[in-house]
Amino acid sequence: MQDFLNKLTRKKMSAKSEARPQLSVTFPISTPKPSDSEIYQNLPFAETDPEPILLPLPGKIVVCYNVDGSSESLFVKQAGAVGIIVVRPLARGIDFSLQIPSTLIERKEAEELREYLENERNPIAKISSTMTALNTKPAPKMATFSSMGPNIISPGIIKPDITTPGVNILAAWPPSTLLATKEDFEYSIISGTSMSCPHASAIAGIIKSYHPSWNPSTIKSAMMTTC
């Protein structure tokens, strides 16, 4: 499944939304500039809301590099922006909550976008609803944050022994720790070994229930030779 579709032209940029899938927005694009005012550090566990750190950006779609959490989109929203274009590897995806309509592009597309911004007097962008692209095969593919053998130093070491799903996993989610969002979700989509490990543990638990006498090594062998 492909959750995004980016089209770049000399006149506009159109991209599928990663958030608020029913909303379509078309607004001018802006790249944030350093503010002359005081810069406040983001403190997710503070009792007060984070202070705005950007210049006013009313009605703008902002291009952000290396976004790793929802706080960046919160600051962009506080600055009055209506959308955010996140630049990061597509393989990493967006596995955190964004506060405003957003889309994801890679560095190559970002360079095309930068050229467009530099040459267009009134650049605009459109973030439209997410669409599922059928007949695509992104898997099997190892996640960027995971290991894939053989070992570079010692090719005789092939790890991991087994891999399980760990990218964009839908799971239960605790109340938000970012007080300024004022939003709580019962479920979220996240990635990482914390999501992959439960899959492997569940398989091992099922095998153990059918074969109580098997030791961990036997269970591991069964998993490795039957996947």
UniProtKB/TrEMBL annotation:
SUPFAM superfamilies membership: Subtilisin-like
GO molecular function terms attached to this record: serine-type endopeptidase activity
Protein name, UniProt field: Peptidase S8/S53 domain-containing protein
Sequence ranges assigned to domain Peptidase S8/S53 in this UniProt record: 128-226
Record-linked PANTHER family: PROPROTEIN CONVERTASE SUBTILISIN/KEXIN
One of the GO biological process terms: proteolysis
Top-level taxon of the source organism: Eukaryota
CDD domains linked: PA_subtilisin_like (cd02120)
Organism encoding this protein: Tetracentron sinense
Keyword flag Protein biosynthesis: no
PROSITE patterns: SUBTILASE, SUBTILASE_SER
